[in-house]
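Example 3.2
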Amino acid sequence: MRRRSFLNLVVGTIAVLPNAGGAQQPKPNIRRIGALWSLAEENPDMQARLIQFHQGLARLGWSEGKNIRVDGRFAAGEAARFEQLAKDLVGSSPEVIVAQSTPVALALLRQTRSIPIVFFSVSDPIGSGLIASLAHPTGNATGVLLYEEGITGKWLAMLKEVAPKTARVAIVANPKTTPFDYFLRTAKAPAATLGVDVVPTPIETAADIERALGEFASKPFGGLLFPPDTTSIAHRDLLVALAVKHRLPSVYGYKSFTTAGGLMSYSTDVPQQNRLVASLVDRILRGAVPADLPVETPTRYETAINASTAKALGLEIPSALIARADDVVE
């Protein structure tokens, strides 16, 4: 899939700078940006990211149809499509490629070691083999770190704070669309400290989700942890509904889940991340190389609580957690 109708909306929201002195200006060279998005184009989270990304580029002087063309592919959460879409995109010879998620970035790196790649929604770029180090990526990829390693412990601690009797926590995600083993590994030490057992719960389809959460809910004192995952985003409403149905306290890696009815989330500032992606693309288009661009790390986190969902689950949110929350959904 190539440039899509959403660009009409994006371009319409971006102000175009007037020509100096009103003189006719020569048409600028059109720079080509490739993008492989792991979500479906019509997904609300994807639409928001696209608008924020293009607005970020516009602030830096890049406008679709004026001096850039963004050639996008949308995998719609289907991991089996990543490789072919990566091959297709690399074959179109863009100057820089934006990659959403770890498996998407890896698929692109298998296709090219020369075209610059800017990744985001990536939590373990070193362990996954995308880069050598955050400060010195060394290869043709750099990007924006989604979460630092301690995030898993923070999510587990929030569950225990809200539901102190929690003894089992299912980590729910698709190993094909997120670094599942990374989240399991980083959960081990904090889980032991908090006195909870981590239950790996891989999912891929809606049927998997219904079966897995139903089985997990059959035993008491359970909680759910949903790390950032393309599959989870695609099935967000189902996951939120099942968590409430089975009366399982849950914590999510994206605020959009809390807004949609999930109990609580602790997440990075997604609009800030999209602006950082645009900034890295800008620097590469102006001559920088990925090996010289350190990976950007998150500087702002957001805690969101859904008070209505807490009430439905019979939970009383501690006042200390309410005080720390950036957003309380009533």
